[in-house]
Amino acid sequence: MAIWRDSLSDFRMIHRKVLIFESLFILLSGFVFVPFFSWLFDRILRAGGRGYLVNSEVITYAFDLRGALAFLLLGSLMVFLLFTEIGVILILAQKTYFSHKVSIMDALATVIRRLPRLIGLGMIQLLLLMVLVSPLIDSPMLNYLLSGYNIDILILNPIRQSILRTVLSIALGLIVFLFFCRLIFSIQLIIIRHRSMTKAMKESWQMTKGRIFRISASLVAFNLLLFGLAYGLLVLVNYLPVWLNLADRIMFIQTLTIVFTGYIWFILTMIVIPLNIIVINRLYYDFQQEPKDQLVLSGSWIAGKAEKRIAETVGKHSKTYRLVLFALLALTFVLNTQIYSNIVHARWNVMIAAHRGDPIQAPENTLAAIEAAISQSVDFVEIDVQISADNVPVLFHDNTLRRIDGTDRSVKSMTLNEIKQIDAGSWFSDEFAGEKIPTLEDVIQHVDDRSRLLIDVKLTGEPELTARILADLIEQYDIADTCLVQSFSPRLLSELRSLNPEIKIGQILTASAGRLERMDVDFYTISQNMLTENFVKLAREQKRQVWVWTVNSERNIKTVLQYDINGIITDYPQRVRQIGGLSTLLSGDDPVSQLNSDTESSTSESTQVSTDN
Questions:
Q1: E-strand stretches of 284-387
Q2: What SS3 state is found at 129?
Q3: What is the DSSP string of 236-283?
Q4: Residue 52, beta-bridge partner list
Q5: How many CB atoms lie within 10 A of CB 46?
Q6: For the chain, domain boundaries
Q7: What is the pLDDT of residues 194-212, one digit of tens each?
Q8: Which class is 351-600 in CATH?
């Protein structure tokens, strides 16, 4: 198509400026903008007497006036930056369309002058629009906004598991895409025509009426071609060693393949958005009867002059700069090859915890389930613990007994003698009729040294009393060095820490915000929906382990095992072991001792943990 040819021609004219700007924007985002947002949000939380937010606190804070204003402020700043990034590239493309030269600084100054146009409801509209199309935008700002969640596990994997969900998701995606196409010229109208966000959206809606097919076909076909070429190149890089019969050096080739793939993907993310903006700019002017350059630039004389001098200097010494650039690329290639070589050769060292014992073979949280888990040589047996009315820790997960005997009685309202009368097995199978709810002491004695316990404490009473009961029992059986304790309650964990610092504690998280390193914990147990590279990186910097729950499907297991985690909580230990090629307690390593060594090298530690609710 002619529009593709013309768009590629435009890109060739401005590719240096675009790549320079994108590189600088990415650097500033990583070293200035994102750290500033984190610092600002931290100051807002501390001003309200909070250091961090966990689980339901995040939602509660968002609906509080102070929290709503904080999120609105951060969202507004992100909108400004996203608008700036897209706007600068748009101006470069727009001036190239009319064969006019423009400097990066003039484009930047013009976009900054347009920022007041976003103030008001238009800012919320633009933020929602950008979040909707976030899968199409590889922006550091949107990555920061969505960094707390694993989109693949949270959204994509559940969709893939159902044909109905897949069909509905495709339909929803199509609606969102068509909505995006109707508003596609909004930013052009703000920058070129100086419209407000609301007016720009209305005019874009009118401009695209009856033209949706051409717009969508142009964008979809162009991106399919672009990603198709990239995919073909990736396939070529991956299969070239096989075609060249280099199987005898497979580990080295795998390392090179990973590095090359990373470079190809990085280049693609650098050019895909600029290319799409150029195509959209071409479409915008194709729909004008008499295209005119109506964009008046807001010059930045000092900055523009400095940019011109830099360009002239680079032009005079272009060979030297190219040589330096090549040397830097070669150096990063060597360093990345070394790093990925260690990854490729690294042995899996992920511990497996059997979720509630073995809930597939026996009723959960019973001695039968625990024995079934131990028979599978798991590294840990994860159990749920609550405190009875007479202060005895017993194994139970739910708030009521409805799932077991159909009543609304709760463990916290019953004495141990009453709890012992409950049949905890018949609901599962007649084979387990008469199975009892065990006490934590029963379990400790039953397990002995055949496995280790991951104790998930469900707080149903006073944190101080619960912590004291648990600490006394752990000390009585001298298992502080072999067990892990986790909970949703930061206060309970804090009390447990003050009573016995030797007990390793972990915070369970389904959501978080703020500076979690202020928490005095040893490991994070997080929902698989929260598992991201950024989260794992932060945990490693804090010398804390990362556990993930509850991972059962083959697809999710494969996804989770791609991350540098320490442990995985699952209903299917053998499935995890087979998929990951894991052994039990590798090389005889003691996971709790390993955690001890980690904590010794860090005075203050933090854990993000998320357990099955």
A1: 351-355, 380-387
A2: helix
A3: HHHHHHHHTT-GGGHHHHHHHHHHHHHHHHHHHHHHHHHHHHHHHHHH
A4: 514
A5: 14
A6: 15-299, 351-600
A7: 998 889 989 999 999 999 9
A8: alpha beta
